[in-house]
Amino acid sequence: MGSLRRGLILAALPTSALAEVCDKVRPHWVPGTPATAFTEMIALFGTPPSLVLLVATALVLRFRSKWGGLGVTVAWAAWVSVVSMVGAGDAVQQQATLEGCVGSPALFILAVAAICIATILYTSPRSTRL
Predict the structure, then answer these.
(1) Tens digits of per-residue pLDDT, 1-46?
(2) pTM for the model
(3) Which of 16, 40, 122, 130 could lock 31 by a disulfide, CB 3.0 to 4.6 Å apart?
(4) Residue 64: which residues within 8 A CB-CB, separation 6 or more?
(5) Which residues are CB-neighbours of 68 under 8 A, at least 6 positions away?
(6) Please, what is the end-to-end C-alpha distance for the chain in angstroms?
(7) Are residues 53 and 75 in contact, defined by beta-carbon separation less than 8 angstroms?
């Protein structure tokens, strides 16, 4: 009876071998490779909204537009909110995190915060008075 209970407990634990959720959430994920904060950051920067925002940020920085800087900062904030809030309560997202194919978005959020701070500081009007 003890081995049956132990077998049921082990079967209920999430493993990468049983990762059918990961096929839906991360189709190109290789089973057995851990999802770290760095790999999650790379995955999130590779999404279409992030790529569009990176290009928009580069254009804003190139033309030093203060209103454009404000716009991309607000857009980045909205995108980070979607990334951090939408999947947080989802059972599929939680199972994918437990199985190891989705990592923490903390490093992505930190990188986006640094991008936004740099954008605001770079595009802010300069004072000519001493």
Answers:
(1) 555 555 445 445 454 444 478 888 888 888 888 889 999 999 999 9
(2) 0.78
(3) 16
(4) 122, 123
(5) 56, 59, 60, 123
(6) 82
(7) yes
